[in-house]
Amino acid sequence: MKTPQERLPVYTKLIFELAHSKGKDVALYILNHLSEVVSDELWRHGTSADGEPFECLSDYLQAKWPHGPHIDPATSTGSLSIDDIIDLADNHGYGTLAKVLGAERKAFQRSEGRPAKTVDNVNSLERPTGNSRTYIEQRLSEQFPDIWRAYLDGEYKSARAAGIAAGFVPKTVTVRVDDVEKAVRTLLKHFTPGQLEQGLQAAAHYGR
User: Fold this and answer.
1) pLDDT exceeding 70 applies to what percent of the chain?
2) DSSP assignment of 86-146, as one string?
3) Domain residues of the chain, as ranges?
4) pLDDT one-digit tens code per residue, 147-172
5) Which of 107, 132, 142, 186 has its CA 20 to 30 Å from the CA of residue 3?
6) What distance in Å separates the CA atoms of residue 54 and residue 162, rounded to the nearest whole number?
7) Closest among 110, 171, 173, 164 to 139, alpha carbons compared
């Protein structure tokens, strides 16, 4: 069986090639390889271009080939960013990997001269804002350590659920707008008739 020092360069090469490939069918392959590197902590056996051990996973992921797979913090043509990989992990059932990478996301530095990736369609500030998964995870890790640990342990089904528990993400519900009766039925699952009546009266008053 190969040692971690022997396995890491193999996975690093595969991840680098897949992350910078123009092919579309790379998701499962790159996620499998990254899972091995993360779960077995193979990255701890690598070194930077200066010959220093990596201090954290994000240092390894950002390191230029052949020391690391050179994953960028922002999307560029023909390559996957850390956010792209987190989304792939979420969408392909790699929840643990997505959480680990999400926790490392804030350690990523923007490439020189490259604009930060917009985190949602409302905000485009350098610091993640709004209701994006990146923003929620960053705020949980910084301001709600207990809920953050519970989220990493799988006690919450999603970052949004953890954010709701923390109190800074509002609860929302999808309502059909082509059928008023069904819309009201949906709202009645969350509000009493009296609350809805009050809301209608207030909306009518301010809408004058």
Assistant:
1) 81
2) HHHHHHTT-HHHHHHHHHHHTT--PPTT-PPPP-SSS---SS--TT-HHHHHHHHHHH-HH
3) 1-117, 118-170, 173-208
4) 988 888 888 888 888 889 999 888 87
5) 107
6) 30
7) 164
- The rounded mean pLDDT for the chain is 79
